[in-house]
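Render Pyridine nucleotide-disulphide oxidoreductase dimerization region in 3D.
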Amino acid sequence: MANPSESTTFDVVIIGAGPVGENVADRVVQGGLSAAIVERELVGGECSYWACMPTKALLRDAAAVRAARALPAAGQAVTGGLEVAAVLARRDRFASNWSDTGQAEWLDQAGIALVRGHGRITGTRVVTVTGTDGTSRVLQARHAVVIATGSSAQLPPVLCLADVAPWASREAAAARTVPDRLAIIGGGVVGSEMATAFSALGSHVTLISQTRLLPGVEPFASDQVTAALRAAGVSLHLKLDATEARRDTSGTVHLTLSDGRLVAADEVLVATGRTPNTKDLGLDHLGLTPGAWLPVDDALAVVGDDGKPVGDGWLYAAGDVNKRALLTHHGKYQARALGDAIAARAHGQELDLAAWGRHAVTADERATTQVIFTDPEVAAVGLSAEAASAAGFRIRVVDHDLGAVAGAALHADGYRGQARMIVDADRNVLIGFTAVGPDVAELLHAATIAVTAEVSLDRLWHAVPAYPTISEIWLRLLEADGRRTRLT
């Protein structure tokens, strides 16, 4: 049998070896096809080295200390502060010390060819890969080319910002030291999580945001995170912009805010959104705009301005680049569906693209899941109240105090949190759920199953939560809804 790494023709060629590209390749190979994956940086991508894994490692020690201090006896056993060097060393282990040897070995064991270099589309189902030494290799795909190149941090239009060498999410995740003063521009997920992490590690953090914190989640969750960050000593400047940046001869960065105030910091972290990694992929040859998000149809085939698949439908985009859901787990979900669909098409099988079908990616629209690892955590799935109303649903909004649940009171003294379910009143099914509070991430999958399966609230009454656990919130939400519906 020929060595796949020496081949030039494959059934599928994937550009980008992050978790999305890896999952596409794996499903394609499991479906009986051959696959090559092209990567110009580290196999494993953003999540493994600069996002999901290292950032959660930065956050975890502080969360464990907070949990212990919320209990009287355990709190007495915790003395001193966090050992920053140990936190960073554990982070390094979870980032595999920025070595992709293990990931590359997995590709080899899975029968996936790895081609290192920068890939560009240079013809119909043709990808030319340029290595770091300048040599080129041309790969021909029999069935499909998949773009899974992810996204990068986007710099806001702040005067002279580039001159102060700001951090983006990568630099924050891989920081070798903790600055005494850290300014964060952006109050979304990255900004809020890194404010949580670096304040716990000893930085005085100042966060500047055009909006309220976490504008994509329910306001009550945003409010609790805002209060907790302020209580932790984070200086918040909300509904303000940074307008100018300069670094003086001592190394201090001075940020001018839109209200005229000045913020001094040792480093500045920019967390104001993402931009797709599509600038230099040869997309202009296909009538697509380099550097733009890649619109896709229900089968994740890239479409042009006319809404029709490019060419004869051989080009696909999965993960961040198609802007459906900029979350690693949803990118991997897309990848599994897409890999199976490409293999099915290659074998002459009909695709199942109906809602919740095998090759559909319905969850991106109806059951997007997210955990924000701030203190307190935020966990959400499906639609918020605002989004559900905007989508035309007639809804019931049901809230309950998480701290009033027996399991939460046992979990931590003074437990503070809230849960909300959004009910489609016409079908009496759950279409959204949000919780904020310590360790609510573990509540999320139950909600995800209920939203995805479109379980009726009448049936949910028979899903009996164990006592005393925080999951008893489900019973309390149903009781609150039942009282409300009886009254109406």
